[in-house]
Amino acid sequence: MIDVLAPNATIGILGGGQLGRMLSVAASRLGFKTHIFEPAANPPAGHVADVITTASYEDEIALKAFAASVDVITYEFENVPTSALDLLESIKPIRPNRRALAVSQDRITEKKFLVDLGLTVAPFAAVDTAADLDKALSDIGAPAILKTRRFGYDGKGQARIMDAAEAPKAIADVAGAPSVLEGFVDFTHEVSVIAARGQAGDVSCFDPGENVHTNGILHTTTVPATLTGAQRMDAVLLAAKILNELEYVGVMGVELFVTKQGLVVNEIAPRVHNSGHWTQNGCIIDQFEQHIRAVAGWPLGDGKRHSNVEMLNLIGNDVDRIPEFAKDGSVAIHMYGKADVKPGRKMGHVNKITGAA
Amino acid sequence: MIDVLAPNATIGILGGGQLGRMLSVAASRLGFKTHIFEPAANPPAGHVADVITTASYEDEIALKAFAASVDVITYEFENVPTSALDLLESIKPIRPNRRALAVSQDRITEKKFLVDLGLTVAPFAAVDTAADLDKALSDIGAPAILKTRRFGYDGKGQARIMDAAEAPKAIADVAGAPSVLEGFVDFTHEVSVIAARGQAGDVSCFDPGENVHTNGILHTTTVPATLTGAQRMDAVLLAAKILNELEYVGVMGVELFVTKQGLVVNEIAPRVHNSGHWTQNGCIIDQFEQHIRAVAGWPLGDGKRHSNVEMLNLIGNDVDRIPEFAKDGSVAIHMYGKADVKPGRKMGHVNKITGAA
């Protein structure tokens, strides 16, 4: 059954960062208002939202009022506490659904889900103790990477282990949190698929982008990616398999390692994704509008690309380059309105058009 | 001197309609916040603005607080009362400048300004009384059109006179307001130039669009327009002449009639313009961002077009066609978030991409 949002309806968004900001703008294009729920003050999304609630995810009164004021709830941030989701879901629908969140909130659950679907992931083992880590390292071998099962992003909650002797430091780095050891994958490059599934079960993918990370943070995404036709098809079919299995509604980012043996799934993110920002200037309907369309029960855009794009993240002092970018007529600037520049903070991005598709 | 707006600065916008809404979104892309001043409640721009003030242009306390809270003031609406502008300008800069407003607020002042620049306008005469109208009709001839000198838009405050016998009805239609009689121009079609001038005096124009009106309201704008290379050049040079003479800062819409004898200026609008909405999906930097760039002291975009576009206004019940447009992957939808559908009300527009430029 398709639940088509009425004109002028309000979409509640959990999380008020740059993804919420760009979702809010996309919602406005389709005639919807947004209400942002965000614990931190002065959220970037608040500058372009109809209403903001500043409250913690433990504040039941605020959560109830938020849910009552909106027509549907979505999120830009997958680590919303379960208790908050339970309460919200008892009042208004949440899209994408809870299963997508449950799967992606825990790296082990996610990997098992992907393996059950017949997809390839890096070798992995659960690590709760130093003894678990020793065992996992002897099974998987070094180099490897220890990641907390929950709440990791942009390289946070991760420790590289180049040699078994580094195990104690790695355990200290993750502060004893339940973790997973992942074996290194011998990949040539990383790509991601920004995939969407509508309420009718239709799936639409944007062309895969090729990602380069620096210090664990996405640096650039380039379309078209270096892929054979067969790899491009594999990437899209694999993403569709994930979305269909989850009965997903919305946009998902699926990160893939390209190896000689085929595509290996690195991780999935049940939301619009940094590696999909290029769609803002490469497609008529971008990933943000695609997500809103799915959540609102609208038909999805076809994912077609009119231009080739290189997306560059502006991290910390990269914002000093804005005057240079502003002079380049082939560059679209997207700033996030963050009050302070900090090292490692995503301040904005630019999409450079490199030609017609 | 170039007054470059600081990152995260706030741009005050007089008027909260769809133009303010799309200006606000463009401002957010460059990292600016907006504060909307609008007498009517629930303004479309308010859904995507940081702050809204709901107050009349006679409310001096509200005007002062608004001006104090922003870094620069611009407008989406040229009929702001002079007393409000005087007060605001004593506190913060207004861009585009007062002269542009003074010229465009009065059709006679505007026509005289254009004629003094050596440009061609329709034959015209000031009409304050029935006797003036009889004299003007005998000089200019019928058919002609009587328009109020001030506050007219979208065909409002206008009366067509096909025959001198219709003069009394025309005077009644404009309710005796100071008016201008304009002779009909024998034109093949109408085009408009969306021109921008930066604080450094640089001028940048988008490719002219070809406009079709229905019942006095813009129906479609198509790019590229039917123009010879020489006409296209004339249109752009003529627009630049107007902006330079006014020492204009921002985007202006210049409507032109194409005749066998050359281009005739219909009217100018000192703001972003409905006939420039196609730039949202045809250019990397659209008219809204171009205006914000000028106001903020940034370099202007080069006006380059990557796609051919047909913009269609959605008036009143045209919104019933949204489900049809939503299925078309070549169509970008831009809704204005207006609460009620009314006949003649601009509810949104769609940009259909008709090919690569």
UniProtKB/TrEMBL annotation, chains A, B:
Its job: Catalyzes the ATP-dependent conversion of 5-aminoimidazole ribonucleotide (AIR) and HCO(3)(-) to N5-carboxyaminoimidazole ribonucleotide (N5-CAIR).
Residue intervals of the ATP-grasp domain: 111-296
Residues annotated for ATP binding in this entry: 107, 147, 152-158, 182-185, 190, 213, 266-267
Sample GO molecular function, one term: phosphoribosylaminoimidazole carboxylase activity
A cellular-component GO term for this protein: cytosol
Name under which the protein is recorded: N5-carboxyaminoimidazole ribonucleotide synthase
Similarity field: Belongs to the PurK/PurT family.
GO biological process: 'de novo' IMP biosynthetic process
Subunit comment: Homodimer.
Organism: Pacificibacter marinus
HAMAP family the record matches: PurK (MF_01928)
Protein's pathway: Purine metabolism; IMP biosynthesis via de novo pathway; 5-amino-1-(5-phospho-D-ribosyl)imidazole-4-carboxylate from 5-amino-1-(5-phospho-D-ribosyl)imidazole (N5-CAIR route): step 1/2
Protein EC: 6.3.4.18
